[in-house]
Amino acid sequence: MLNLAKENKEAITDFDELLFAIWFHDIIYKSRSKRNEKRSAKYAIKKLKNFNLKELKRDKIYKLILSTKKHKILVNKDLDNAFLLDFDLAILGKDWEIYKAYTQKIRKEYKMFPNFLYRPARKKVLQGFLDRETLYFTEKYKNLFEEKARENLQKELNLYN
User: What SUPFAM superfamilies does the record point to (predicted)?
Assistant: First the structure.
């Protein structure tokens, strides 16, 4: 995600804030928790409280991190939030072998759940993405990844049928 941010630096309004959001967005992560993003956002603000940048927009960082929970834009004054979410889902649009390795890591992350619980939950996540009008928010990443991402998601979903 950091590399993608650097690649798009000229199009990002608040580059430092976006970098902090990327860095902190999964800093607190427990696979069973539904509060990871909120905890990560609070942690980021706490750690950045005494940061020596007067211009740092901490509220924006907080909202950017929260936006990763449901992958919905919360900050729409510029394209920063769109880029953050697109960077987060960039893996979906990679070649199948890279995507497949990613899915294996996800399965390992949720290894505490037997297949009869994991599979229906994973299918629901995949279908939720497929039901979206678009997966990506910026034209750049729609053009780069949308088609391949949908193909990968559908291919993975078919594995569970």
Answer: HD-domain/PDEase-like
Number of domains in the chain: 2
Which residues touch 152 (CB under 8 Å, ≥6 apart)? 92, 93, 94, 96, 99
Residue range 53-108, pLDDT digits in tens: 667 888 999 999 999 999 999 999 999 999 999 999 999 999 999 999 999 999 99
109 and 153 inside one domain: yes
Residue reference for tokens 């860095």: 23
Q: Is the pTM of this model over 0.85?
A: yes
Each residue of 65-76: b (16+ CB within 10 Å) or e? bbbbbebeebbe
User: For residues 103 and 106, what is the distance between their CA atoms, to the nearest angstrom?
Assistant: 5
